[in-house]
Amino acid sequence: MEASYTLRSGMITADLLDSAKQGDPQSLSQLLNQSLQRFGIAAQAFVDHTHGLTIQLEATGGAEILQPERILPWLQQGIERLGSNGAIPTIRVLARCREQSEVLWVEHLEFGNASSQEPEPDSVGHLPLPYQRDRFLVCGLGRLGQHCVVALKAFQVNVVAIDLTYPSVWQIEAVPSLLDEDPILGDCRSESVLLQAQIHRCRAALLVTQDESINLEAAITIHKINPHVRLVVRSSKQNLNRLLERRLTNFVAYDPTELPATAFSLAALGEDTIGAFNVDDLPLQVVRRTVQPGEVLDQFSSYRFHRRAMRLLHYQKQGRSSSNSGEPFFSWNPNTLIHAGDVITYIERVESRPNFAVSQTSVWEQLRQRLSSFTILRRLQDFNLGNTTNHLLTWIQENQLRRNIALAATLALVMGINTSAILRSEVGVSWPRAIQTSLVLLMGGFGDVFGGLNEELPVAPWVMGLSFLTSLISAIFVLGVFGLVADAMLSARFEFLQNRPPIPDQDHVVVFGLGRVGRKVAAFLLQRQQPVVAITQNPEQEALLPKLPVVVGNFLEGLTQVSLVKAKSVVMVTEDQLLNLELGLTAHDLVHQALLNQEWIRELPLGIVIRTYDQTFSANLANLLPEAKAFSAYALSAEAFAGAAFGENILGLFRLQDHTILVTEYHIEANDTLNGRLLSHVAYGYGVVPIFYQSAKHAHTQLREVSDFLMPSDTERLGIGDRLIVLATINGLRRIERGELALAQTWQLTVLKPKNSSVLFEASRILHNVSGCGLRTARDFLDHLPGKMQLQLYNFQAYDLWQRLGDMKQLPIRLERIKSAAMDSFPSLGSGEERQESDSIMTNRFPERIC
Asked: Do 289 and 346 touch, CB atoms closer than 8 A?
C-alpha cells in the first residue's frame, strides 16, 4: 500500500510538470512557488489579454532579491529545462514589492520553437475578456478618491476616474501614474460622461465626491445604465442609505468619517484594546498586551489560543522589534511557547460583567423589571406570525415604557378572561354580564360590583377574594403605568434643565473639535465610561452631546481650562491637519514644561492622537513627534471602500502592526474563490483569520446563539450560501479575489499498525476532516497499515493533524515535512549556504508519536 501512495504522488508531480510544459498558468505558478517561496518571492502566472502569458514575481521582503540580472537567467534556464516544445513562445515578466503598488521592472523572455501561426478568428472570439472583472470607476479625485485609487491598484485592476476639474495639486503624487486612463472631466451624474468612462464594462463604481447628494444621484444614474455594477457610495445619510440598499441591488454606503472613529478612540485610551466591533450585536475586541511573569499565559502554547473563546492574531517575541513589512497573521510556528515579556495580540468576545452595586429600587420595581425582561415577547417572535406582528413586537421592545404598557395590558387580558370565566361558571351570570363585571373589577371597582349584585345570587367567598385580588393588582399596575407615563412626559419636558457634568480633574481624554469624527470619538469614549471633555469653536455643537463637558472658545485658550497636565491623552480631530499638528505640539510642550516644574508627576506620558489627511504627512510626524499617533482618516476608510468594491461587506476596521485590518463579511456564491475550501486553506492559504462561520442551513434558525458560530474550526468546509467573516489586510482581500492561494508544503504521514484496530475509524475521520483528503482515501490508507501517505498541508494544518492523531494514544504516527520533487525542475537560486539552510527547514520534523 505504501508503494501505491508513492506512485500517486509521483503521478501528481508528473501531471504538474506536463501541465507546466503546456504553459498552464496554475501549474507554472505552483512549480515556481515551490522553488521561490523560501527566498521570500511569490510567483503568479496568468494570461493577460494584451501581453499573453505573464509571470508576476512579488517580493514579500526587500526588492533586492528581484534583481533582473539574477532572476531572469534563472527563469530562462528553468523554463527551457521544462522542454515546452514551442508551447511557451514568450513570457512577460514583471516584478514588484508586496507593499508597493509600483512595478519595479518589466522584461520579456523568448524561447525557441515558437509558433508563428496566427490564432483562428473564432478562437479569439472565445477568449475570456477581463473587462467586466477588472475595470473600476472612481468618481471624485479628492483626498478620499485618491486614496481609493491607491487601494484599488493593490488588487492590480484597471482604474479610471471622473472629476469635474483636473486636480491642480495631487495629494498623492503617484495617482496620475496609477490611473489606466487620463481622468475624464465632467459631471459623474451625466449619462454621457458615464458612457465615456465605459460604465457598462465596469465591475464597480466608487462614488466618493465631497457632495453626498451628487454621489447618490450618480448612483441612481449608474444603476439605470448598468444594473449589475457594484455601487460603493460615500454618504452619511443612514436612513436614506438603508432605503436605497433595498431598492438598488449591489449598493453599499459608508461614512468615511465614521469608519476610522473607533481607531482614533482606542488610540486615545492607550490601553490593551486596539480594536472593537460587533458581529450581529455580539461585541468583540482585539487585545494587545505584554505577558507578565507568573501569569496563566506564561509558558502557554500558542496552539491553545486556537479555540472557541479566542484566537491569536500576532506574536512578537521579547527583545525582537516588530516587523511591519510582512503580513501580521500566522508569522509564528504552531508549536511556539509564549513566555513572559512576549507581546501577543488576540481577539476575544467581550463578556458581560455582573454589576454588584446595591439596588435602591423597591420590591415592586424589581418585580416589574423581572417581569418586563421575561421572554414572552421574544418567544412569540420565534413563531413566524408574519412581518406585521414582528414589526409590532420590535416596536414594543424598543422602548421601556411600551414594554411596561404591553406587560400591563397582557396581564389585564389574562386576569379579565379568568375572572369572566369564573363569574360565568360559579355565579351563573350571562357572558355579557360577566365580561362587563370583569372590566369594572379591572378598573378597581370591587365595591361597585358586589354592592350592585342581586343579593339572592350566591357568591362563594373564594370568588369574592379572587375578585378583590383582581381589583388590587390591576389598580397597582394602572397606577404604575400612569406614573411611568407622567414621568416620561415630565422628563422630556424638563430635560433641558439638566446640568452638564463638570470637567474631569485627571485621567481624562481631551477631544479637540466636535465635527462628525469628534462626536463619534466622544460618544465612543462616553460609552466606555471614560472621562472626557471636548473643546470646540462652534457654540452650536455644544448641544449635540448633552452629557459631554464642553469648553467653547479658542482651542489654544481652551488648553488652560481642561486640566491638560493631568489628562490621559489628547485627540486632535479638527478639519485642519496643520491646526491638529499645532495643538499636538502645544499640548506636548505644556505638559513637558509642567513636568520640569514638578507641577505634576505622571506615570505614563501624555497620549497624543492626531488626525491627518495625507499619509506622507503622517509618516513625517513620526520624526517630529515620535510619541504621537497620526492617522489619516481617508487612508483608513479608502481600504474599506476598496474592499467593498469587490462585493464584500466591511463591518469595521482597526490597526495592527501598521496594517489596516478590515472586518470583512463574505456570502459564498457558486463562482466564489472560497467555495469548497476548507477554513484551514482559507486561513493559511490566503493569510486571513476566520472569526465567524454560519452554514446556509443555519442562516435562518433562531435555535442557536450567535456565539455558537464564533471562532470556527479549521475543519469546516465552505459551501454556497454560507456566511463567513474574516479579519484581513487589503492584500489578503486581493489574494482571495484573485484566488492566489499560497502553496502548501508536502508532508509525509507514516502510520504503524495499532494494537487495537477500533481507533482506525476515528482516525480516518480526523484525517479526512483536517487534511481535506477523501474519506474513502483515508479509510483505504488506514486499512492497509503500516504505510506512508503524502499530504499537501500548511504548517498549522499539519500541527493540528499531528495533535489530533497523536491524542488518540494507541495510534503510532510520525509526520515530517519532505522536499518536493518538483523543486528539481529549476536550478538553485542563491549560494550553497542559503540552499543548505532552506533545505534543513524543509526537513524539519514534529516529535514522533509512537506507543
From this structure: no
**Within 10 Å of residue 57's Cβ, how many Cβ atoms?**
21
Cβ neighbors of 355 (< 8 A, separation 6 or more) are none
pLDDT tens for each residue of 724-766 = 999 998 888 888 888 888 888 888 888 888 888 888 888 999 9
- Report yes or no: 425 and 494 within 8 Å, Cβ to Cβ: no
Q: Residue 265 and residue 518: Cα distance in Å, rounded?
A: 9
| Structural domains present in the chain | 17-125 (3.30.70), 130-254 (3.40.50.720), 269-349 (3.30.70.1450), 363-493 (no CATH), 509-612 (3.40.50.720), 745-842 (3.30.1390.10)
| DSSP annotation string for 159-202 | EEEEESS--SS-SSTTHHHHSSSPPEES-TT-HHHHHHTTGGG-
Model pTM score: 0.62
- Taking Cα atoms as reference points, which of 85, 12, 10, 70 lies closest to residue 36? 70
Q: Which amino acid is at 485?
A: V
Distance CA 805, CA 766 (A): 7
C-alpha cell at 169: 495639486
Residues of the chain scoring pLDDT < 50: 1-12, 113-133, 352-385, 453-454, 495-497, 821-851
User: pLDDT tens digits for 771-810?
Assistant: 888 888 888 998 888 888 888 888 898 988 988 888 877 7
Angle at 410 between CA 406 and CA 416, to 5 degrees: 140
